[in-house]
Amino acid sequence: MKKTLLPALGALLGLTLALVLTLVAFGMPVADSLGLIWEGSVGSSGGWMRTAVKATPLMLMGLGMAVAWRAGMYNIGGEGQFLAGALGGAAAAKLLSAVPALALKPLVLVSGFVWGGLFALIAGWLLVKRGVNVVISTILLNFVAIQLFEWALTGSLQEAKGRTPQTDRLPDAMMLFRFDRQNDLHSGVLIALVAVVVVYAILFLTPTGFRVRLAGENPQAARANRIPPARYQLIAMALSGGLCGLAASVEFLGITGQLAKGFNQQLGFIAIPVALLGNLHPVGVGLSAVYFGGLFAGSENLARFSNFGTTVMFVIQGTAVWAYVGVRTVLERRQLAGAEVES
Amino acid sequence: MQPLIAIRGLCKRFGPVQALKNVAATFEAGEIHAVLGENGAGKSTLVNLLAGFLMPDAGSLELDGAPLPLGDPVAIRNMGVAMVHQHFMLVPEFTVAENLALARTGRTLERLEPLDRAAGSLAMAERLGWKLDPKARTGDLPVGVQQRIEILKALGDDRRVLILDEPTAVLGPDEVEELFRVLRDLREKGMAILLIAHKLSEVMAVANRATVLRRGEVVASAPIADVDEATLAAWMVGDVPPRAERPSAKSATEFQGLRLSGLRVLGDRGESAITDLGLEVPRGAIVGIGGVDGNGQVELAEAIVGVRSFSGELVWVPHGEPAIAYIPQSRQKDGLALKMSVLDNLAIAGHLRTEMRRGPFLRTRALSHWGGELVGKYAIKVGALDDPVGSLSGGNQQKVVVARELDREPDLVVAVNPTRGLDVRAARFVHEQLAQARDRGAAVLLISTDLDELAAMADETFFLLGGRLRSGDGAEAMVGGAA
Known about the structure:
The complex is a heterodimer of chains A (343) and B (483).
Chain A: H1 2-25, H2 30-41, H3 45-70, H4 78-95, H5 101-130, H6 134-153, H7 188-205, H8 207-217, H9 219-224, H10 229-256, H11 267-277, H12 282-304, H13 311-339
Helix pairs in contact in A: 1-13, 2-3, 2-12, 3-7, 3-10, 3-11, 3-12, 4-5, 4-6, 4-10, 4-11, 5-6, 5-10, 7-8, 7-10, 7-12, 8-10, 11-12, 12-13
Chain B: E1 5-14, E2 17-27, E3 31-36, H1 43-50, E4 58-63, E5 66-67, H2 73-78, E6 81-84, H3 96-102, H4 114-127, H5 143-155, E7 161-165, H6 173-188, E8 192-197, H7 200-206, E9 209-214, E10 217-223, H8 229-237, E11 257-266, E12 272-282, E13 285-290, H9 297-305, E14 310-317, E15 324-327, H10 331-335, H11 342-350, E16 357-358, E17 361-362, H12 364-377, H13 394-406, E18 412-416, H14 424-439, E19 443-447, H15 451-457, E20 460-465, E21 468-471, H16 475-479
Parallel strand pairs in B: 3-8, 3-9, 6-7, 7-8, 13-19, 13-20, 15-18, 18-19
Antiparallel strand pairs in B: 1-2, 1-4, 4-5, 9-10, 11-12, 11-14, 16-17, 20-21
Helix pairs in contact in B: 3-4, 3-5, 4-5, 11-12, 11-13, 13-14
């Protein structure tokens, strides 16, 4: 546990330091601003709810990234898989609108998962069959997804009025359960928490997950033991994209109720530091998603009550991740020095 | 006369392990000085301290009466102390010339012409009779050839001390002889040579003096002329290892086992690695394959275990699929996932067992119980089952592979250099396990560059040369009679 605790502490320290330095640099009153961030994230019940809302998609996508990276598939395509999942969810909602809402909701979620997974499998297939680097293919497929998304919003999925590039708003019955009228907190957060448990179980308690991890750590050793790494890399990729797609349909059913430009909010890229900060471990990713969710919620509150844009949040996040990576590197080096006892 | 290198009171601790305890030694110019010891005895630590790659906790190092800058490998190298590492320090993506040039890059802004800079080393390679294609990609070359590049890197400049960390572990017998010729040459030129070695016969053949380490302490130091192999072995392990008896061949009845005929296998670059090979490995016998590295051994093993495609016939007689145990040549590359735990690495085989599963899940508790038993049964020295396997010593890493593979109760065992880099005791352990597998009725194919090993273990030995099989007994067959 010490191994994961220390870097987390490092990140927290980095966060605090980054917060203070950023506020000073922007000439903000440090104490007041910190108070606003605190209150907006974890200092009030409303803050906690907003934190949970923000953390939900990050948790699902962070888990997705963790699964893929564990398999050695450096998936940078969360953004594209998220958008593919959004299209899948919206398409299901539109095509099956005759189905009663209670049955349609899970279908929309499943459709998002499937579309996201299939979209990620393009990159997986390109690696396995053609040797295309996953980092490159997933980055490029992001652009493909963005264009597809915009094309769909001006085409088949566009609102009936046909004026704005967006889908029709879902009827209220289609939306996920809200815990509180004053707040966005929806039952999607439970889906994310269940996903933490499911991904943990898959990775650490099933033969498939074991092979996924082995394929990531040393594909050659897997091969030498007659375990085909390609199959498990594809499985990991499908699951990864699926979780990103699921995140999209949860956002769709939980928050927006419609697709429009800006739906993705660059969550796909933030999911990577979420996964890294969580040490690619499902439980760690869950905690780190809450942490990032809190950052989002807190700095939104700061922006609401000051003339200070939410961009500062990205500076803070960057520094926090950077601090985490730094601490981790130092710890790993110390571990390696210990391992040199060999012979 | 003042010794070239004087070591006094050297101590080094890694966490709870005292790797070196108050070590004192001297090394003379014009001498090949062997440093002996089992895995974990502190040999590598000693030379890494000497070369500046590690910082001692206490003690001093002197070169020609002047103190060496502790923990500063560059300065020490510039003073004329060069080291050839056990694990290669080569850039696999670079060409041979680029790797050689790496050892002598100048200032940042200087024009880098790898071929020019490597010219001296390449000329030396030629003098040594080593064929090296300067434009070949280093990672594509067999380990034996890669080591030559390492040695050339170290030799190139004006060196006074050359440290070789288990240089013969990866070499075939003729390559070892060549290396020794080179070392003797360098000794004549007045260099001090520190040779870390496992094989006592090699030490007897080339060294002037031997210093033996056991558990981080110097047990003895003596001129080679005054000792014999048994004495050295006794110093190393505390008792004299019995020589393995040559097992008697089983009487041939109806053939059962692995049958290869007309086997053709391609290498990584599409070259023909195995040509028209025919071989029978009967159950209850160990068939040895000797030969110098890079003659198709790895490709043959990979084809048999099913990770490399082939043409020709490869069948299990009478029928069915044999349970295969595969001990690959490189445990770190093909055998283990170093960052994963000891248990996970054992589980690579263990998780396949039906009793380790319940529905879609692994029975993790049963698995770790089984792993614990295996660690005990095979006497693997681990702190905890959850420790990364990369933190174990080389011998214990190999034991993890051996335990995992042989515990499958295989019908067929394919082992490639299974004792490479292991100390006497660990090697004996691996041999015992292979013999036990044979006695249980497994067909064992032992591919090894170590003639002694084949002589001790194999019921029948063939040699691979250029991808073809030759029968015979001894060095002639290994090098095609043109040594």
